[in-house]
Predict the structure.
Amino acid sequence: MAHKMAKNMKYETIIGLEVHVELATKSKMFCGCPADHFGKAPNTITCPVCLGLPGALPVPNKKAVESTIMLGLALECEIPLESKFDRKHYFYPDLPKGYQISQYDQPLAINGSFGNVRIRRVHLEEDTGKLQHATIEGEAVSLVDFNRSGVPLVEIVTEPDFRTLEEVDVFLKKLQQIIRYLGISNADMEKGSMRIEPSVSIRTLKTEELPLYRVEIKNINSFKFARKAIEYEIERQTEMLESGEQPKQQTRGFVESKGNTAAQRDKEEAHDYRYFPEPDIPPMRWKSSQLSAISRQIGELPDAKKGRFMKDYYLNDYDATLLTEARARAEYFEKAVSIQSSVVSPKAIANWIINKKIDLEKVTPAQLLDQILQSTQTTSVSDNELEKIIKQILSENEKAVEDYKSGKDQALMFLVGQGLKSLSQKGNASIIRERLINAIKSSAQ
Ligand code: ADP
Ligand code: ZN
Ligand code: MG
């Protein structure tokens, strides 16, 4: 262990990410086949276009283009006013045309940032088919399923800005969250809807330049495996450097069963792909009015929502973070809070959603409020005790009192919540509410 620490102090890890995300559009990228291929019987959702038959012509999916631009904007990218598709050539049995329609030098979005990670580009392409290796009558065979062929696929490329596994982990989870917020993909790793290709290299500390090589790791379909694969590469490359060897520019595959990576091929260069503009699809040009229309579809993103929840509902960082984890959860919470007749504080609603793990699909917000009310007992708090507590709440929460006086109803809810808390949930919310209103009124006179 001590040995390993010493090593790590001498070197620094450089990581960049390429992330692929399948878009949840109705149809595929360039044809009318359904895009939802998960769990379908092999080769049941195909047509001449996504099978790459001669003469079939691609028609781009407008929704997919808009979703990509939305993501680009959410990642603070520039959207160039002109963009186009290109053909990327390589041979593999899951790629029926012999090329993939992708984007090369004019992607839909460029030069963004997400947290302190720079986003190089966000582009749109088509997914490939899927190979299945099987044994039939004792013979090893490869079967091809073209259901996934032509499904819209967004690729997000970061600059090599990560130095630790933790930074990668945080980034990936936030990226998945924002993609789900935008509603453009389920981004489920276990379904292959979000796939990660980290590039890893090692340099000695105090070096300014990036290493002249990078090792790209393919086939990663879980956060855990991303971690394992990067850890393995750090170890492998560090050992090489320690013994005076120079790691090679390479593409390696993650081997799940062994938790290691294995060489696949020496990394190809862009010119190997013989990129050229897709002649069957005209370039795209945007008017600023079109871009602002797309931008308006974005809605409130997680960080903004969290900040607003803390401010508007007097929630702490922890509660606000958990409530805004998923958009549906945040919306459920706000629906419950907005039920006017209720005397339940946002904090109490938050506690129930977070701690009691309410099934938000089965229990409506109104039913949840009933449950909370029924559970707060209305027993024996003496008038004196109540009066003392009301006084204390008012003096300790001047800001909320002022907010309430200036018309902010949520502030009253917050004060009621404080009351219930002081009474260890024994008090009656409506009575506390009434007392608070009276006390505030009489103090104003
Ligand atoms: P190429 O042009 O060969 O495709 P790029 O420089 O475009 O390579 O980078 C592709 C991916 O590799 C990006 O995610 C980038 O962040 C990452 N990357 C580039 N250089 C390094 C490096 N030295 N170490 C780790 N990752 C790197
Ligand atoms: Zn098709
Ligand atoms: Mg790609």
User: Anything to note?
Assistant: Residues 28, 31, 33, 46-47, 49-50, 150 surround zinc ion (ligand 2) (CB under 6 Å).
